[in-house]
Amino acid sequence: MTTTNYGIPSESELENLANSLFPDFEPERCAAGIENLVTSGDTSVINYAASKAASYGGGANYASSAENAFSGYGSISEFEQIANEYNGGYGTVSEYEQAADSYGASPATGAARQFGAYDAYTAPSEQPSSGGYSPVVLSQGQAENYVPKQASQKTVSEAPQAKSNESIIVGTKTLAQIRNDFPILSEKINGNDLVWLDNGATTQRPKQVIDRLTYYYEHENSNVHRGAHELAARSTDAYENARQITADFLGAPSKDNIVFVRGTTEAINLVANAYVKPLLQPGDEIILTMLEHHANIVPWQLICEETGAVIKVVPVDKSGQLIISEYEKLFTKRTKFVSATHVSNALGTVTPIEELVAIAHAHGVRILIDGAQSVAHIPVNVTALDTDFFVFSGHKIFAPTGIGAVYGKSDVLEAARPYHGGGNMIKDVTFERTIYNPAPNKFEAGTGSIADAVGLGAALEYLNSIGMAEVNRHEHELLVYAMKEMQKINGLHLIGTATNKASVLSFVLDGVDNEAVGQRLNELGIAVRTGHHCAQPILRHFGLEGTVRPTLALYNSFGDIDRLVQGIRTLA
Fold first, then answer.
1. Same domain for 508 and 543?
2. DSSP β-ladder status, 389-393 and 366-370
3. Pseudo-torsion of CA 481, 42, 53, 76, nearest 10°?
4. Residue among 534, 565, 571, 572 flagged as catalytic
5. Is 304 a catalytic residue?
6. CA gyration radius for the chain?
7. Residue 507 CB neighbours (<10 A)
8. Does the model's pTM come out above 0.90?
9. Range of the domain at 284
10. The domain that contains 486 carries what CATH number?
């Protein structure tokens, strides 16, 4: 079976049809154009597609059709004209196109789902290292078997239709099976089934993680890296295996690039003190972004107070996305480091980290990416990304509390000095000097959170068994559905409307205090976060002191969104 990464299959019935209708049609170029439009809105592609559509005699009719079918994308291409030809009788705006738009994906994917042939789609072989939704590729066979159901076709709504948990496939499992993996989701809150939409604060744990922790304490519990007995060996093996799993999950070249810490906050403090602070002189500069969590602001303020360095901030536009042109202008000869979030915990904005990294490196500056709000939602490959540091917390990726990780390139970990001193991180000690172990051990003084690290490994294995691309796809569909349903509520204002978003649905409700919204939803069994979310600078940029913040995870369902919307409506 042959597939492409453009969102439609190679050598399919649709492409053959296209070639027969228009001999000079280039299916891969048009397919790529659609994907480019969906992801970047490239005006050159739009203009070219518009001129091609007009040249085939479609004129304003096709332009209007495309505008309605792909609202917001402005894509007017040969591919859409062919869709109208192929779906003759459906009207100017074909249901084929509507299906594609309603799923926020490629036309082929939308068509496959609309025409009931979505069970055999496959993910592209080359996933992006980061970013928002990763388009799903339709298999060649599915496209070739596609037959329009002209007699029974129904109108497609503007958002994905809510489906039963048993019918939704996320990687290797149904959504119902995934939800059954999380025991706490059967909990009753005020007599209602729990709807957990506070995933940005912490995620719930699957039974696989809970069972792995239990097994560790029953069969492996010991300190690591020392001891001549069997349990010490078992514990060390389990701990180091978790490090290897973490490295593999992030696409790191070696497990020695992974340092275990308590969480993202400690991770950033470690990098700030162990690597960056020794580089700083009075007047040197650290670049942050307006989107940062306090944990990616305060550690830098502390070392600036000690060294006389200063912080510069990348601004955002009205949608909450970084202004990259302004980021580039901040670099000077005094710039020593950049630290930037991957996904805003307050807005859900997915930042263009590939650009952030590339620009920093072009200026000879190292960079840290805060992945606390991205790693459970978006495929990440630190090697492809080329970031110097990447940090995250276990409890936000279905693992226990008290564990997190720092990925660091080998050269920066070697250059960094130890952050804490004590046992485990030393090779030899006298009263005159100490010789440290190499990384990662030189950063892991004392007894670490061994069982929690093992639990982190189990959580990452659980996600690997499902597939991060599939998790990403499922959450994107939920996000699109939720945003469209929430925007129908009178007086509700979504905060953060960047084109590329993940997992976060911050909002305010006219005339209703945020805390009152949270309390009302709690009465209905729905858990959300209210307040400033440890991100006061970005919220104040929008003139707010806080929001209501539902946040999504892989186990959330369309039913969860429906209950959230119904709950908000009791106040609107």
1. yes
2. parallel
3. 10
4. 534
5. no
6. 25
7. 21
8. no
9. 209-247+262-418+444-464
10. 3.90.1150.10
